[in-house]
Amino acid sequence: MEKEIYEQSTTIKRAALQDRKDMEKSVDMIENAERVYLTGCGTSSYAASLGAKYLREAGHRVEVEQSHELEYRSDEITEDDLVIAISQSGETADLLSLLDEVDAEVLSIVNVVGSTLDRQSGHTLYVNAGPEIGVASTKAFTAQLTVLKMMNYTAQRELESGRESLVETASKVEDVLKENEDTVTELSKYLQKRENVYFIGRSIGYEIARESALKLKELSYIHAESFPGGEFKHGTLALIEEGVPVVGILGKGDEEMMSNIAEAKSRGADIIGSGKEKTEGFKEFIQIPDDENSEILQIVPFQMLAYKTALKKGNNPDKPRNLAKSVTVK
């Protein structure tokens, strides 16, 4: 897994080198569809949620839902609609089951060429991350985000400038890991003794909070949950007491996020932050450089944190218990 985390400086760049005609065809499919649904499972569902936010920025009305839940609404999806299906393996049972129930055209974003999803799609965008051996997805996730951002840039007629910005983002991955190495190591020592961790974020930051929590629970077996910053005070705040770690993903809506963080801190929480600018009150802070695609950089240290925490606890981060790389049963 560690190797795959470091490979992201290459795989993000490779994912950005999508063919112009493929990207334009994808945008045409979106623009010609009556309704657009983005879907996936696990990590890919968080990529789908981010993709929905990107496409909304480009002016498109889209829906997003995890595949196993969207299947219950499959009768709403018509042949005039488009399903954007996201999967690393292309063999995810819940996703394929959904597609068996609908007549809509399918645009897939997939890593494995020739997979079932690839074969069943009207058009496929390959993320080109290469074989991902670790059960917990790392480089495939950031490659998915890269392709989805390329789709957004294409929709806004900014394909080439967007491509350049993503290549620049890729060049910062190793520096982000190096500059946060000591912080991540100290955090892994701290977290290995904790039973619960709460991640909060707003807008795009919420999706990064979700994926960060998933990585930590997958590998360290620590109970980790994520919440929108605004929702945190509606119930979950009751769980916060002295010494409970709360991770704040800073980005869009920083002022509101700092208010949410202050509420947790006033109840005794240990506050861990991630973003561009550190302010007072954080136990530890993961620094992320200013970047047009900062969310791609923001997830990388949390992947490494999950990996190191797993090692500290004596877990095998490449093969977490009870989990499979490709979930081929419903």
Description of the molecule:
The chain is of the alpha/beta class and 330 residues long. It is globular and about 55 Å long. Helix 12 links the parallel strand 6 and strand 7. A five-stranded parallel β-sheet has the order 2-1-3-4-5. The protein contains 15 helices and ten strands. Helices cover 48% and strands 15% of the residues. The protein has two domains: 169 residues, 3-Layer(aba) Sandwich (Rossmann fold), CATH 3.40.50.10490; 140 residues, Rossmann fold (3-Layer(aba) Sandwich), CATH 3.40.50.10490. Helix 4 runs antiparallel to helix 12.
Main attributes?
330 residues, alpha/beta, Rossmann fold, 2 domains, five-stranded parallel β-sheet, 10 strands, 48% helix, globular
Q: Judging by the overall fold, what is the CATH architecture of the largest domain?
A: 3-Layer(aba) Sandwich
Q: Can you identify the CATH superfamily of the largest domain?
A: Glucose-6-phosphate isomerase like protein, domain 1
Uncertain runs: none
CATH topology of the largest domain: Rossmann fold
Shape: globular
Helix and strand sequence = HHHEHEHEHEHEHHHHEHEHEHEEH
Rg: 19 Å
Q: What is the mean predicted local confidence, pLDDT?
A: 93
Q: Number of DSSP helices?
A: 15
Percent in strands: 15-25%
| Gap between N and C termini | 26 Å
Broad structural category: alpha/beta
